[in-house]
Amino acid sequence: NAGVTQTPKFRVLKTGQSMTLLCAQDMNHEYMYWYRQDPGMGLRLIHYSVGEGTTAKGEVPDGYNVSRLKKQNFLLGLESAAPSQTSVYFCASSYLGLAGGSPQYFGPGTRLLVL
Amino acid sequence: QQPVQSPQAVILREGEDAVINCSSSKALYSVHWYRQKHGEAPVFLMILLKGGEQKGHEKISASFNEKKQQSSLYLTASQLSYSGTYFCGTESADSNYQLIWGAGTKLIIKP
Question: pLDDT at position B68, please?
Fold first, then answer.
């Protein structure tokens, strides 16, 4: 059981470049999340998904897009990277949503530097 | 609105106790506690649901006071492995099914 995995682990982009971050989970969880973590600010939700084929905006969705074509995968895309998107990105998954009291399981993170 | 965690940082000797607080200006449905070690992912500790219950996990326990809109995490007889940053995530009526996270409390345990 790998849990939640993320690729890549680290990436450097130039302003304006695009990239896709991949999150995969092998726990058969319905819910998946993308967060960004910046120093002193805790975690902020970018987008989330409540099941295959569904996505919804979180607290800070601007500049990002997501897709959940398969239940086990959740992709985060940056169409035109900006220095303000320099951050550590965490993917998480949970069996149920908040109402079900399910914990979220986090991947190891992707460190992104936009120059 | 982000919940407020206090203190921002605390340094303890091994064996000492610590209390970390998480306060919100909103009525809460639940409070989630996680620990994150440097360079690693957050790891789940416990969830406190509406109802004022207290939960325990080894020597770490937590309480949830709905009236005060506050949760406290208690670390008893701290061990070196407890070092890290502790985050609370809160769920309220207008958080739109999302957790809103505090800025974290950094805990350093010295031998």
Answer: 85
